[in-house]
Amino acid sequence: MRRLALNSAAVTLLLTAQALVVPSALAAPAEAPLTASFPVQISVEANRSIGEFKPIWRFFGADEPNYATMKDGQRLMEEIGALRPGAVYFRAHNLLTSGDGTPALKWGSTNAYTEDALGRPVYDWTILDRIFDTYLASGVRPYVEVGFMPEALSVRPRPYQHQWRPGHGDIGTGWAYPPTDYGKWSELVYQWAKHCVERYGEAEVSQWYWETWNEANGSSYWHASPEEFYKRHDYAVTAIRRALPSARVGGPDCAGSGGPFMVHFLDHCLNGTNYATGRHGTPVDFIAFHAKGRPEYVDKHVRMGIAAQLKDMEQGFDLVAAVPQLKDKPIVIGESDPDGCAACVGPQLGYRPSSLYASYTTACLAREQDLADLRGANLEGALTWAFEFEDQPFFAGQRVLASAGIDLPVLNAFRMFSRMDHTRVQAISSGQVALAEIVERGVRERPDVGVVATTGPGRLDILVWHYHDDDVPGPDADVELRVGGLPTSAAVQLRHFRIDEDHSNAFAAWRRMGSPSAPDAAQYAALRRAGELTPLAEASIAVTAPDGKANLHFALPRQAVSLLEFRWPVAVSAPPAPVLAPAVLPGRGLEDHDFFYAGEWDTRRPVQTMFIVRQGSVAWRYSIPNDDSRGVLQELDDATLLPDGNIVFARKTGAGIVTPDKKITWSYDAPPGFEVHVAQPAGADRVMIVQNGNPATLRIINTATGITEKIFELPVGNPKSAHGQFRSVRITPAGTFLAAHMDADLVAEYDGTGRRLWSLAVPSPWAALRLTNGNTLVSSNHAFVREYDRHGSQVWEYDQKDAAAAGVALFVCQGISRLPDGNTIITNWCPGQLKDRGRWPSSVQALEVTPDKRIIWALRSWTQPADLGPATTVQILDGK
Fold first, then answer.
1. How far is CA 422 from the centre of its chain?
2. d(CA 514, CA 492)
3. What is the mean pLDDT of residues 213-218?
4. I want to staple 253 with a disulfide (CB 3.0 to 4.6 A). Which of 170, 288, 470, 657 is the partner?
C-alpha cells in the first residue's frame, strides 16, 4: 500500500481526495505485501547547512557518437540538456574514427582525417560539426575525447572496423594503434581544436573538457606500451593548447582506478620529459578514471555490485591524494556505472529498464560525494556511460537512458537530482547503511533507506531512496520524516515525486500493456507519458508549520526513489534606490516616439487596454475585459501593429486580430487548462501562436480558413503549469523559431519540424529575438537584458545596476527591441515587485538605452488622458 499521511500535532495538511489518488493510467493491480513494512526515521534541518551539494551527476557518454544526430538521439540529447542547460557534458568515443558516419554497436565514425594520393592530410569536420552542433543546441557541452586513430594514420590499419556483437567479438582493431607520424597526429588535433575555436568561440570552447583516449591501460582500446600512450597524449595536449591556451586538458580516463598505470601517468605529467616539447612535464587540469559495479545473476535474480564501483572510486581518490601537487585537482569519474558494457545484454543486466537502476544510481551518487569528502578528493563529476541505441527493440536490455524514444526510470533519477539546489543541509536516516559498510560489502543485508537534502531561496528538496543489491521483493519502508527549519510566516507547498512500479516508470507500464513488440500510436504516447517524472498527486499540498516543523509519513517501496519539494514565496525587494525614478526623465515623454503600447495585469481597472501614441497623444485605444465570458482572467501580452493597421494580439485565454475600427476579424480561444501568451504575424493571412499547457504547442493558423497549417510540440520545464511556460517566440529571418523557455531557463531555436537547432542557458527568459548581426537579444524576469553572440558568449548587458546609476528602478524586463541606430527599447513591468499599486505611477514603463548604456528616453505615463498602465510591449513606429 502507498500512503501519505501527517502527524497533525506538528503540521496541518490541506488534503483533497484527488491528492491521495494514484493516477489511474499508471496504477498497477494491488499486491499484498510479503511482510509488514519496517520503520525508518528521517530528520532534516533546513537551516543547518553542511556544505556544497555538487552537481556531479551532470556528465553522460556513449561509444556511438553518431546516435546523437539521429531521431531518438536528438530528442534524448535535448532531454539531458534540459536537466541543467549549459552545465551538462557529453563524452563520446570514436570522434576521430574513420568511416562514413554509419553507427553500429560500440562503433561510430566521422571521417575527420583522410589523406590524398600523395599522403597529404585532408580534414573534413562535417560530421563532427553536426555532432557538436547537436550537443550545443541541446544545452550540452562536449567532454572531448581525442580518439580514435584514423585509418590513414594507424601503424596497423587493417582490419579497421570491428565486427563486435553482443556475446562475442574483439573491438580492438586498427583504430586502437599509435600513429605512423606524430607530426601528422599533432597537426590533426591542432586543426580540430582550432576549428572548434573558430566555429564556437574561445569563450565557449574554454569551458569544454579535453582528454586524449579511453582506457589505455586495458587490452581493448590501446595496442601499444604505456610509454607510447604518454607520447601520443603529450602530442595531443600540446596541439590543443597551441590552438587554445586556455583549454581544459586532462586524462587519462583509464579503466578502474588505473593502479600502476595511473601512478606512472601522473608522474610523467609532473616530472617527465614532454615527448612533444622536450620540456619538463605535461599540463593536467583534471584527472579522470573509471569506476564500475559488478552485477551477478544468482538464485534466479539480479544481485548488484555497488561496492565494486565505490571501491574503484576510493582507490582512485587515494592515488590522486598521494600526489601532493595534484590532490586538489578536479576529478571526473569518466565512466561511472553499475556494470562494464553498455551494449552487452544478459540475465545479470536485467536491472537496466527497471526502477532498480534508478535506486542504485541515486544511492551511488549520494555516496560518491561523501566518499570524495572523506578521502579529501575534489570530485567534479561522475559520468554515466548510458545514452540510447537507435532502432533497437523496445526495452532490449542495453544500458540506456531511453529506449526507442521512451525514457527509462533512471533518467527520472537524474531529473530528481537536477531539481535540487547547491546547499546541502543536515539529513539523517535511521535506515541508511553506513558509508564504510556499503564500500566494503555493498547492500546485502538490511536495505539502504537513505536521504540527502538541499536548500535554496524559498525551497527545500529532500531525496529519499530505498535500495538493495538483491532484486527480489521486500517490504516497504514506513518512513517518518521530521523536517525542521521551515519558515513560520510563509505558506509552504509540498510536492512529492516518485519513481517506483507505478510512477515515472515506462518499463512497468509497457509490461502492464502485455509487453507489445510494436506499440501502436496510442500505446506509444502513453509510454512516453509514463516515462516522465511523475508526482504522487496532481496538486501540491499546503503545509502550515507555525513552529517551523513538520512530520510526515509515507511508504517507500523497495527500489523506489522519492523527491519531496517544499516551496514557499520569497519576498523580492525593490532595487536599492531612494526613488523609483528621477522627477525629470531623459527624453520628451510621449513626444519622443510614435509607438504602439500594450501591457498585462493592469488590476487597477476592469479592462486591459492597448494604445497607439502619435505626436505625443493617444491616437487610438482598444480594451478587453479583465475577465472573459467564462470568468477567466485575461492578459494582454504579445501584440504587434501590422502595416495595414490591424493588430495581432494574445490575451492569455486566446488570441485575435483587431482592425483600426475595432472589429475582431479573427479569434482563437484556448481550451480549458491552456493559455496563449504568444501571437505573431506569420505571413499573409497567417498567425503563429504558442499554446501553453501539456503539451505546449507552436501553431501556424490560416486566419482566412481557420486551418492549422503547422503544429509541433515545444518542450517545457513544468508541464503542469501552463502559465509560466512561454511569453515570447519569434520567427527569425531564416524561418526558424526562437523560443524563450521561461520555466526552463533556456532560449532555444527550432526548425519547422520542432527539431532544436541551438540553445542558450538564460535565467527565466521573457523574450528573445534574433538581431540583424546574427546575435540574440534576451530579456529576463530577473531584471536584465543581454545580447549573446552565435556561440553563446555574452557581448552586452543592461541590468539593475546600470539603471540604478541613472536613478531608475528596473523591475521585470519583458518586451525588447533593437532600433536601427543600435539603441535598445526595454519595457519595465512593475506589478510583480510593487505590490502597492499606488506606487506604480512613480515607476518608469519603458527605456531607450544606447550601446554604452545611457538612457536617452524614459517613458512614465500613468495619468489620463494617457494612463498607459504596466508595460509589456512597446513597438516603435517612427523608424528612429
1. 15
2. 41
3. 97
4. 288
Concatenate the DSSP letters of all residues of 496-527 into one string.
EEEESSSSS-HHHHHHHTT--SS--HHHHHHH
Spatial CB neighbours of 468, under 8 Å, sequence gap ≥ 6: 443, 447, 448, 474, 558, 559
φ, ψ for residue 196 (rounded to 5)? -60, -40
252 in Cβ contact with 199 (< 8 Å): no
Looking at every residue in the chain, the average pLDDT score rounds to 91
CA distances to 17, 252, 537 from 20, in Å: 6, 51, 6
Q: Which residues pair with 499 in a beta bridge?
A: 561
Residue 601 and residue 814: Cα distance in Å, rounded? 13
Query: DSSP string covering 563-610, please?
Result: EEEEE-----PPPS-SSSS-SS-SS-GGGS--EEEE-S--TTSSEEEE
CA angle 138, 140, 145 (to 5 degrees): 130
Tell me: the pLDDT tens digits for 143-177? Answer: 999 999 999 999 999 999 999 988 778 899 999 99
CA distances, 224 to each of 211, 217, 273, 541 (Å)? 18, 10, 19, 61
Give the pLDDT of residue 602: 85
Q: How far apart are CA 586 and CA 592, in angstroms?
A: 10
Gyration radius of the chain's alpha carbons: 29
pLDDT of residue 295: 98
Q: Please state, in angstroms and rounded to a whole number, the distance separating the CA atoms of residues 282 and 269.
A: 5
Query: How buried is 683 (Cβ within 10 angstroms: 0-12 exposed, 13-18 middle, 19+ buried)?
Result: exposed
Of 9, 96, 23, residue with least CA distance to 504: 23
| C-alpha separations of 484 from 47, 51, 488, 491, 757 in Å | 8, 18, 10, 15, 45
User: Do 769 and 777 contact (CB within 8 A), yes or no?
Assistant: yes
Buried b (16+ CB within 10 A) or exposed e, 386-400: bbbbbebebbebbbb
486 vs 7, 112, 552, CA distance in Å?
16, 56, 14
Nearest to 655 by CA among 673, 675, 641: 675
Question: Cβ distance 464 to 429 under 8 Å?
Answer: yes
Is the link from the previous residue into 159 a cis peptide, with omega within 30 of 0? yes
407 alpha-carbon distance from chain centroid: 15
Place of cell 581518490: 317
3-class DSSP state of 369: helix
**CA distances to 262, 350, 440 from 308, in Å:** 18, 18, 8
Q: 515-569 pLDDT, tens per residue?
A: 999 999 999 999 999 999 999 987 788 887 889 999 999 999 999 999 999 999 8
Per-residue pLDDT tens digits for 23-81: 222 233 334 445 689 999 999 999 999 999 999 999 999 999 999 999 999 999 999 99
SS3 694: coil
Amino acid identity of residue 312, one-letter, is: D
Measured torsion, CA atoms of residues 511, 515, 520, 524, in degrees rounded to the nearest 10: 40
Cell of 817: 527591441
Amino acid in position 583: A
Q: What pLDDT is attached to residue 34?
A: 55
The secondary structure of 109-165, three-state, reads CCCCEEECCCCCEEECCHHHHHHHHHHHHCCEEEEEECCCCCCCCECCCCCCCCCCE
Phi, psi of 366 (to 5 degrees): -65, -40
pLDDT recorded at residue 606: 79
Instruction: Indicate the DSSP class of residue 166.
Output: T
Contacts of 520 (CB under 8 A, 6+ apart): none
Give the confidence band of 880 by pLDDT, cuts at 50, 70, 90.
low
Nearest to 585 by CA among 869, 852, 876, 843: 843
* Residue among 2, 41, 37 nearest 19 (CA): 2
State the Cα–Cα distance between residues 69 and 561, nearest whole angstrom.
32
